[in-house]
Amino acid sequence: MSYDLIFQLGSKVLNGEQLTFAEALALTKIDESDIPILLGVANKVRIKFTGNQVDTCEIVNARSGNCSEDCKFCAQSAHHQTQINTYPLMSQEQILSSAKAAESHGAYRFCIVTAGCGMKNDPDFDQITTAIERIGAETGLERCCSLGILSPQHVKLLKAAGITRYHHNLETSKSFFNQICSTHTYEERIETIKHIKAEGLEVCSGGIIGMGETWEHRLELAFALKELDVDSVPINVLNPVQGSALEDQQPLKPIEVLQAFAIFRMILPDKILRYAGGREKALGELVPLGFLSGINGMLIGNYLTTTGRGASDDLNTVRGLGLTPIAG
User: Fold this and answer.
1) Which of 96, 176, 185, 292 would be a feasible disulfide site paired with 217, CB 3.0-4.6 Å?
2) Residue 145 annotated as catalytic
3) Annotated active-site residue in 63, 143, 218, 274
4) What is the pLDDT of residues 230-262, one digit of tens each?
5) What pLDDT digit, counting tens, does each position of 204-237 carry?
6) What is the DSSP letter of 244?
7) Which residues are within 8 A (CB) of 173 and not within 5 positions of it... i.e. 6 or more apart?
8) β-sheet bridge partners, residue 53
9) Active site residue: 189, 204, 218, 265, which one?
């Protein structure tokens, strides 16, 4: 019976043991009627290993669009004809204003995000590091950024500016990556994560589900993140953007999304699993169930090119479930 397997593997994780790939794959094949049991077990794993605190982060899209990369999911790719606002790097004052707004909303961490492949020969890099320094001087926020592929020297400079965590998604599994992006490699993404870890900084890295990948691809991603020992794992659900290469991708069933959260929790019992983009469209009124499926972190407020529910509603959901947003 599926529920026997769920309890068996749940007990294994709760006892401090690690799931194998085959065991995780078995959890993808359980009866749909038993998925709520899996969610409950994953919630118990979350409570044991990470407690009831929820790590909150707000982001700013500090430089939008005209990205050279051809990632099929992305509204900001210059290879796609999407109807988004494109603009160069925001001014220092605009970025700082966004950070102060995030702090007033109750965010614990603030992340500066820029469109583009990475910082090699990027004229905006010095302005970004200055903005990070100013946020540190004028707010109490933990600081993060997401600037694409970095060299070791970039990482050293970002660390000196005051970031404590860097965001760089793997996006999907190595075996599926070439079906999503052809303008840079999976290995380049891995290399940046290793540069970040070598400097002693935390890593925020996850991916997107619902791009046409299989369960095996999702598990391959989860186990790659486990091997890299990343600290925070944002799980996005594809929100197909008109004009992008995946605009016609069929949405996942909400129960499958929740099942994915639970299985990631079982594989990564002590990490931050972060609610990220697409959750509102994918889950609708079921968004609160994510926190009862193993989620213990979230982006609050808006995303890069789409709007969220608003920071207040996000935090009210967290508190209504008896969980505690981490305060700065």
Assistant:
1) 176
2) no
3) 274
4) 999 999 999 888 888 788 899 999 999 999 999
5) 999 999 999 999 999 999 999 999 999 999 999 9
6) S
7) 213, 216, 217, 218, 220, 221, 224
8) 324
9) 204
Which positions of the chain have pLDDT values less than 50?
A: none
- In order of their start, the domains of the chain are 37-325 (3.20.20.70)
What's the pTM?
0.95
List the alpha helices (DSSP H) in the chain: 2-14, 21-27, 35-50, 92-105, 125-138, 152-161, 174-177, 186-198, 215-228, 254-267, 279-283, 311-320
Map residue 67 onto helix, strand or coil. strand
What CA–CA distances, in Å, run from 293 to 8, 38, 255, 261? 17, 8, 11, 6
Active site (annotated) includes residue 181: no
319 is catalytic: no
Q: Among the options 46, 57, 109, 111, which is catalytic?
A: 111
How is residue 270 annotated by DSSP? T
Q: For this structure, is 204 an active site residue?
A: yes
CA end-to-end distance (rounded Å), the chain: 45
At 146, list the tokens: 């997401």
